Amino acid sequence: MITVTDLRKVYRQGNREVVALDGVSLSVPKGSIHGIVGHSGAGKSTLVRCLTLLDSPTSGSVSINGAELSASRDADLRTARRRIGMIFQHANLMDSRTAADNVAHPLEIVKTPRAAIRSKVAELLKLVGLEGFENAYPSQLSGGQRQRVGIARALASDPDVLLCDEPTSALDPKTTDEILTLIQDLTQRLQLTVLVITHEMQVIKRICDSVSLLEAGRIVEHGPLRTVAADLGGRLSSTLLPLPPAETNGSGTVLEILYSGDSASEPVLTGAARTFGLDLNVLAGSVESLAGTQFGHLRIQLPAGADTASLARHLTGQGVAVRVVQEETS
Fold it and tell me: Which fold has domain 243-326?
């Protein structure tokens, strides 16, 4: 549904070139939610603008629903853009228009008949949970309600794709959860393909099926959420499944272990301790569910003199990822 191939965007500042996107490639299948995460300046907003051709890529291609936007011109490009709904950080509503009029705006641009507009607007406001707020102005709505109007407006042209640029970063935690639930529900109900640009890992954990880490205009990690989380040595894994800091006790080796799926519900660590006759010290731990898979993440310390290699092999054989965090000290 969304295919980006070797996308580059280079800006010129005086005699200097600034590379905002440096060979970005990704594919998002129909009906899924993909997250792009990265710090400020990573190139996230530039990527959104290039995906909609609001900013022309220096090179590379963007294809949405089989239409190559980067090769489209004028009328064809405008038609392709109407199949893309945009959700912004601050909703970007027109203050002088009511909620209904804001949702109607995209339909008015393409000269939709008035009766059809009224029917469509009523349907969309009900869909996003704002039935009865048709005549309210943005100043009379909460932040979450304004974002719901923005979502309804994005759906007005019956898009195949939703591009969400920091859709919840201006909202409180409760409202964030409500908006993410709405996006997830709409994705399933309308069979949308959704790309979420965010710097908030909680958004990725909450609704995404897959994720990419963007750094300095490059995708440095990418994959299904479950696969990325299970990569104990990966940077995204440590932020998806964080462990609280903990002090070691004694001189024994410290291991970080990660287990998921069936092994997450089995007493793997207890069995290993019995097998090797070890008293293991659990320094920190967490259990979370990501994309329908349960993960257990622990940091443990072995007693001095323990056979670390044999224990690691045993745990690996049980489907557990193992990483040495601190070697035994003398």
Answer: Alpha-Beta Plaits (3.30.70)
Coil, strand or helix at 310: helix
pLDDT tens-digit series, residues 90-125:
889 999 999 999 999 999 999 999 999 999 999 999
**CA atoms 69, 75, 80, 82: torsion sign:** positive
How far apart CA 63 and CA 312 sit, in angstroms, is 45
Contact assessment for residue 225 and residue 294, using Cβ atoms and an 8 Å cutoff: no
Burial 55-75 (b: 16+ CB within 10 A, else e): bebeebebbbbeeebbebeee
CATH topology of domain 2-230: Rossmann fold (3.40.50)
* Phi, psi (rounded to 5 degrees) for 321: -80, 135
Burial class (CB in 10 A: 0-12, 13-18, 19+), 244: exposed
Q: Are 18 and 1 in contact (CB under 8 A)?
A: no
